[in-house]
Amino acid sequence: MKDNIVKEKSFLFAINSIDLYKAIIEQKEFILSKQFLRSATSTGANIEEATAGFSRKDFINKLAIASKEARETHYWLRLLEHYHKEINFTAIKSDCEELIKILTSIISTSQENIKN
Fold first, then answer.
1. What pLDDT, on a 0 to 100 scale, did the predictor assign at position 1?
2. Spatial contact of 77 and 65, defined as CB atoms under 8 Å apart
């Protein structure tokens, strides 16, 4: 079976996000961290759903939702980074940005394939 890079990367991103969430709640940050955790784990869940799409349009729609969740996650990371300078967010922000780029590319290619 062919490896699905975006599924694997989103799964690892979720694991790293959960680990970061645990570190942040130790600092008594519950509101921003909860929002971050929800969007970070939702990204991968929507990617998983997309792979079971009933049609190409359904696939694109689910990936578009995953992309929105990844962008929301990036926003929460920026806010958390602002308030928690003692934590290094560089790697996880980079992983999030990479997911956004991959999703954007897949969506764009899939939309082009529908037109052709």
1. 41
2. no
pLDDT at residue 115, rounded to an integer: 77
Amino acid at 38: R
pLDDT digits (tens, 9 = 90+) for 36-60: 999 999 999 999 999 987 899 999 9
Q: How far apart are CA 115 and CA 28, in angstroms?
A: 50
Task: Quote the domain boundaries for residue 90.
Answer: 5-115
Tokens 């290094």 belong to 88
**What's the CATH number where 93 sits?**
1.20.1440.60
Domain count of the fold of the chain: 1
Question: Do residues 77 and 92 make contact, with C-beta atoms less than 8 angstroms apart?
Answer: yes
**Which of 41, 34, 31 is closest to 10 using CA atoms?**
41
